[in-house]
Amino acid sequence: xxxxxxxxxxxxxxxxxxxxxxxxxxxxxxxxxxxxxxxxxxxxxxxxxxxxxxxxxxxxxxxxxxxxxxxxxxxxxxxxxxxxxxxxxxxxxxxxxxxxxxxxxxxxxxxxxxxxxxxxxxxxxxxxxxxxxxxxxxxxxxxxxxxxxxxxxxxxxxxxxxxxxxxxxxxxxxxxxxxxxxxxxxxxxxxxxxxxxxxxxxxxxxxxxxxxxxxxxxxxxxxxxxxxxxxxxxxxxxxxxxxxxxxxxxxxxxxxxxxxxxxxxxxxxxxxxxxxxxxxxxxxxxxxxxx
Length: 291
Known about the structure:
Structural class: alpha/beta
Low-confidence stretches: none
Shape: elongated
Mean pLDDT: 93
Distance between the termini: 40 Å
CATH class of the largest domain: Alpha Beta
Radius of gyration: 23 Å
Number of domains: 2
Number of helices: 13
Helix content: 40-55%
CATH architecture of the largest domain: 3-Layer(aba) Sandwich
Largest sheet: 5 strands, parallel
CATH superfamily of the largest domain: P-loop containing nucleotide triphosphate hydrolases
């Protein structure tokens, strides 16, 4: 018997929920205004999955013969810290590389003012028909870095090019936007990703695994299974999906039927090891500097 059993690759499956559809539609409805849009919500709630899904679908359905079609880009921004210097330029430079796939020429970055670099980027976006850019982890950006990215949007609008920027975050981005009144006024849509309700969690689980699809909503034992997962993982898709993978792995060694006790055991195996790891770390490495 082999020691290593390589897992079977699985195709990433995106369950398009009602909330995701609504947020996608709300975002696209303001696109022609050269909008700034904020997507906000807790970690693992589905913001990144939704953004990647939209960008992929837009590219899949892009048709050069359709005058209304355009391309989209998604990227996760790195930190541009406060007082790091040239933050506006750094914001534009980050957007430039993400949208075009190659870096801005260093000499151009040094000698040209932010407005000139923004105009250069807009010219390249127009050539590629890119009109929508998702900026994930936007809370890592300083106020001036955000200001630099918004400058690109402003230059695009003044030059007759439609460009929507979607800033995605879970931290203090709303407060930052509120401090910049000129940017707050250009933010035409705010989308809040809410925790899924019990019924929405059940619908999601039913799409993810046949066991949950076969449960009876009027059966108390079946309902208890879903209630346990909803209470434990808070209705967050990013928590439920890894649990399903762990459940499938455990079920290969488990010959009984999947029930509440089995679901609890699957959860506790990981939860107890996490707790043991934290306790050991606190007991043995307290006070040592982080690397």
